Amino acid sequence: MSVVTNTTTIGAIEAPSRRNTELALLAFAVVIPVFAYLNVGLAIDGKVPAGMLGYGLGLTLLAGVAHLVVRKWAPYADPLLLPLATLLNGMGLVLIWRLDQSPRLIAKSIRDFGSFSPDAPKQMLYSAVGIAMFVGVLLLLKDHRVLQRYTYISMMAALVLLLLPLVPGLGADVFGAKIWIHIGGFSIQPGEFAKLVLAIFFSGYLMVKRDALALASRRFMGLYLPRGRDLGPIITIWAVSLLILVFENDLGTSLLFFGMFVIMLYVATERTSWIVMGLLMAVAGAVSVASFAGHVQARVDAWSDPFACAEKVAACDQMTQVLMSFGSGGILGAGLGQGSSDLIGFAANSDFIFATVGEELGLTGVMVFLLFYGLIIERGVRTALAARDPFGKLLAMGMSGAFALQIFVVAGGVMGLIPLTGMTMPFLAYGGSSVIANWALIGILIRISDTARRPAPAPAPNPDAEMTQVVRP
Amino acid sequence: MNKPLRRVAIFCGLLVLALLLRDNWIQFVRADELNAHPKNTRVRIERYANPRGNIIVDGKPITSSVDSGGNYYKYKRTYVNGPMWAPVTGYASQVYDANQIEKIEDGILTGNDDRLFFDRTLSMFTGEKKKGGDVVTTLSGAAQKAAFEGLGDKTGAVVAIEPKTGKILALASTPSYDPSTIAGSDDEKAWVSLNESKSKPMQNRALREIYPPGSVFKVVTAAAALENGKVTDINAPTDTPEGWKIPLSNREMVNHAHGCANTSLIHALEISCNSVFAKLGDDVGRDKMVEMAEKFGFNAEQFTPVRSSASVFDKNSDRGGNALSSIGQFNTATTPLQMAMVTAAIANDGKLMKPYMIDQLRAPNLDVIKQNEPEELSRPVSPETAQKLQQMMESVVTKGTGGNADLNMDGVKVGGKTGTAQHGEKNAKRPYAWFISYAKTSEGSPVAVAVVVEDSAGTDREDITGGGLAAPIAKAVMKAVIKTRG
């Protein structure tokens, strides 16, 4: 006969923390990029690359610190998120380093800018800052619900971040998109951070107003329309951010924000009518933007028939090179370091880094990377499902949704599924803001998942427990 | 909130699924199409990523590859004696593709050919760099040199064939160009000037230009007359009046030579009587003339394996046209290769061998991948007819207009035929000087040559004759071949 010691209905069985699983996965996440690094070195120079030890130790150190912090301060966190992000970040470093070795890109840089400086060391630094950001989030944010307090501050911060690139002297117009600011020697893309801050605002506001939005509505043509005072602020913020982004020529981010907004509204209110309205608004927005923005038309042209477009416009040549990169990769790829994805030229290591994956790792490699991203999204959604508080649910869902949309918009654009919008593949592409912001995103998700998976607090001692105890013979 | 969350999760899954499907579409379904796209520079980058194999003459390469240090195309093609060999090698340019042997045997030269699969696999394991195979030609350096230097700064072409086998020994075309000058990636200026040059240096005159053959075509007419029994005794009078009237016209056939009236076939060839051969062509008839010309290879492209233009003998001409065609005027037009084939067939006792210039293809480790064997193309004339034609052509050299080609070597007989082809509106342009000839020893004929000199600036119009301009070049080529074989 078994002895039942727990008689409460709420399970207080100690949930496994899965920290050792995470450690084992992290070992893979470090070893695979290190081998990839070795592979590139052997393919290009025929010898073991000199930086291999430094790279391996650096990556191990970063992963180790992140793991220890999670072990100590978020012991019940999802075990997959950190290894996936580490692996992608590590592979991104290898791919950027591989493109640094390209004599064609070096020559092009010297021709265009008079000098060449490798991007991989800078990316290593950004990755370190990114991990520091991750650690900072876990240390400072003991409970994600604290963020609810900053709902309106987040709103202001998002607007300021989005407006910064338009400030004269601070903003910079880089290849047509005004999405950068220069401070000292650094350039920052505030949009990447605005993504996080806006998700916090949406979560905080929707959590409070979701009942009003869902219930206090009038029926109009089969759709539930909420009252203006409930929806007004959120529509305003969303519209302002879209307008700013349209002026900054950053269509990918506009799409991302809009998608995130619709998803969170739908999740908060549980009303399908939001999807319908969202789609209608998206169509209206797309048509109006396309009608007055010439560069949108150009992007659509480049997408519908890049080869025909390349005959007329030199810029379309980039898209044809990307497609030929993918084609040349075939099923198994040319092998790391042995492709010609550097023919893409400018932005080969940022916007188009996925083409290098396609050419050198082939269909197989691209599918693996897409599944890795898919796993991150899946773990994010799981976190949202498991979260016990509506704010955490909304925040986790908003961030995972934004992440999914970003993957779709970037990879879809690079592979010619949708028009190119010029965003970067999270963790893989070169760029400080992107790496840092995405590490912060992973940090917040880990914090929410830790709270969600943490065993429920032991129920208060029941005074009747003693009396109902089974007396055994 | 969990129900919408699950739906959104499915939506996110669909986004990833769409990406996976799209990726399969471009990397699996469309991969071949994208790889074969003309804008895809990867093919050219690959072509020059490793040293190309070489084209070999007399055991020595006439091409090589140098490391140009370029960011796109690592190795660059260079040529030894480029202008002299250009009609054989063609060019391989980093930007402007390639042609002739460089293009036709590109698979062997780059090492990508399927027949080199084992070499590639082997070198992958031994860690050797990928190398291309070699193309060994049938050409003779001495004959080519004699031909090229003989042409000098004149415009023209020379083709020399070994009659027994059909091996091409010389293939010269002037003015020529150096393929090295357009091999690199920044040779646009040279490329444009070569293409726009009025002297058309990139034209392969030996294979791709068709000229009116003039009197050298008379050997074909003679062959047709003998084969069809219109003439049985080459020393008998041919019953041709001086002033033979061209059928369906009021004009008479003009003879530049004196003493053509009623002369014998052998003498008519010696002094090149137009009237005799025009009448013979008329006697034989158009259809039989076409048949004979086609047996020699007219009206068809030849693949050596570099493609030649098709020579023309008009299948639809009327009687008058046929008579004019029979002396190599009117619509008759031929490549120098074609006339060399005619000469070779006669020298080889009536058997025409398929002309070819690639002897073997070799793997980088010198294993022979493919050995070309001589191949019979046709038998245009019987051995008896061939003997008679030889007798007549030898008489052209000993007694007639071809004296300049006589080698004066013991045991070597030379047969030839001169030609001075008129062309242009009302013959206004400067005539082409032709010469075809063969040398013969007791062991058969080692060489048959056709020479055409298109325009020879500095020579008086009256002095442009096949015997004067073209025969010395043919003689030099024959001498070079006999010396190297002797």
From TrEMBL, chain A:
Domain of life the protein comes from: Bacteria
PANTHER family: CELL CYCLE PROTEIN, PEPTIDOGLYCAN GLYCOSYLTRANSFERASE RODA
Mode of membrane association: Multi-pass membrane protein
One GO term of the biological process aspect: regulation of cell shape
UniProt keyword annotation of Methyltransferase present: no
Cell cycle as UniProt keyword: yes
Main location: membrane
Transmembrane segments annotated in the record for this chain: 23-44, 50-69, 81-99, 124-141, 150-167, 179-208, 228-245, 251-268, 275-296, 352-373, 394-421, 427-446
GO CC annotations, alphabetized: cell division site; plasma membrane
Protein name per its UniProtKB record: Cell division protein FtsW
Subcellular location: Membrane
UniProt GO molecular function: lipid-linked peptidoglycan transporter activity
Keywords: Cell cycle, Cell division, Cell shape, Membrane, Transmembrane, Transmembrane helix
Entries under InterPro entries matching the protein: FtsW/RodA
Automatic annotation (TrEMBL), chain B:
Pfam families in alphabetical order: PBP_dimer_2, Transpeptidase
An annotated GO cellular component: plasma membrane
Coiled-coil region list: none
SUPFAM superfamilies tied to this protein: beta-lactamase/transpeptidase-like
Domain Penicillin-binding protein transpeptidase: 156-479
UniProt GO molecular function: penicillin binding; peptidoglycan L,D-transpeptidase activity
Leader sequence segment: none
GO biological process, one term: cell wall organization
Protein name: Penicillin-binding protein
Species this protein is from: Streptomyces vietnamensis
